[in-house]
Amino acid sequence: MNEFALIDRFFKRTIHDPYVRLGIGDDAAIVVPAPGQELAISVDMLVEGRHFLPDVDPEALGHKVLAVNLSDLAAMGARPRWALLGGALPEADERWIEAFTRGLFALADRYGVTLIGGDTTRGPRNFCLTILGELPAGTAITRSGARAGDDVWVSGTLGDAMLALAAIQRRTAVDAALLPVLRARLERPEPRIALGERLRGVATAALDVSDGLTGDLAHILEASRVGARIELAAVPRGEALAAKMAGPERGLALSCLLAGGDDYELCFAASPDARERLEAIASEVQVPVTRIGALTAEPGLVVRDEGGATLSPLPEAFDHFQ
Ligand code: ADP
Ligand code: MG
Fold it and tell me: Which atom from ligand 1 is nearest to the alpha carbon of 26?
């Protein structure tokens, strides 16, 4: 199968979006943003051996390539619209590509995302997806709008993806009944799109937790020129992680909870006046949100343990170059 037959068969689909003037098949796609809207644009790359293993389930990978990008839009409060996919493949393995696109399009269809273009080449397997989203002009939730006195919130639970990886790599053991849930957190993250959109006008700053809570929260602190005090006991965790926190593997549990990557939950700041509104939003979109601390005028991030003592040193966030 040649390159163009492959694109036609697996990536080109009938487009139902009237705002796409031109999709796959020309030198560039043409889209029309709705009046009064701005575009939020982001790109994320997943590389074999670094972000996924050679034996990854291709359907789950198709899901994840899009999910991690949708998560960035969620953090801005944007509504996802269009995507472009750059892919390198070692060979035209039809079954593999079919499963990959099944995972990709299933998630795309759930959020009304149209694939409008991309690039396909032979090479070590990696995928680079560009996502475009819309939001009313001037309403994006950035990292820089937080103020001292704001509450700090996170959605869902943290640390499950890193705990899943540790379990898969047999660095720890988890209850067999809990493993499928953990695995799903790692392999099929659920972007918090509905929550993100509802946070516009409520959250003063937000980001998605892809590299660990403390490292990612530090980006908000830096951009907003504030500090934070976080209560460890308040940081939401799943059952498997909660069990480890109280036992001999507390060190691992702390790393997962505070520095574990790949969770794709939202961390955001909001005025204490917004508490009731946030609880209402959370129940409407059916994503739990938890208040984990507050922003302070003094710079720096302090995490207080269950007894009120400052946790030091903090587990380190993941960094590709360290
Ligand atoms: P060009 O060489 O002019 O850049 P290509 O031959 O790379 O064009 O691609 C032909 C068309 O197929 C373009 O519209 C491009 O956006 C689209 N395309 C290529 N690869 C993909 C892909 N993996 N997913 C979606 N669209 C793709
Ligand atoms: Mg090209």
Answer: 14
CA–CA separation, 112 and 20 (whole Å): 12
Task: Say which ligand is closest to the CA of 6.
Answer: 1
> Which residues, including other chains, have CB under 8 Å from residue 294's CB and lie 6 or more apart?
149, 150, 151, 152, 228, 229
Residue 57, φ and ψ in degrees, nearest 5: -70, 115
For residue 227, what are the CA distances in angstroms to 97, 204, 214, 231, 297? 46, 15, 12, 14, 6
Q: List the strands of the sheet with 37-47, edge to edge.
A: 37-47, 126-136, 79-89, 114-122
The residues placing their C-beta within 5 Å of ligand 2, an ion, are: 119
- The answer to whether the CB of 142 falls within 8 A of the CB of 207 is no
| pLDDT tens, position by position, 240-294 | 999 999 999 999 999 999 999 899 999 999 999 999 999 999 999 999 999 999 9
How many CB atoms are located within 10 Å of the residue 122 CB? 10
- Return phi, psi of residue 69, to 5°: -75, -40
Tell me the C-alpha distance between 279 and 301, whole Å.
25
Name the closest-CA residue to atom 21, ligand 1: 118
Using alpha carbons, list the distances in angstroms from residue 190 to 161, 232, 244, 252.
12, 24, 24, 24
Question: Whole-angstrom Cα distance, residue 228 to residue 158?
Answer: 18
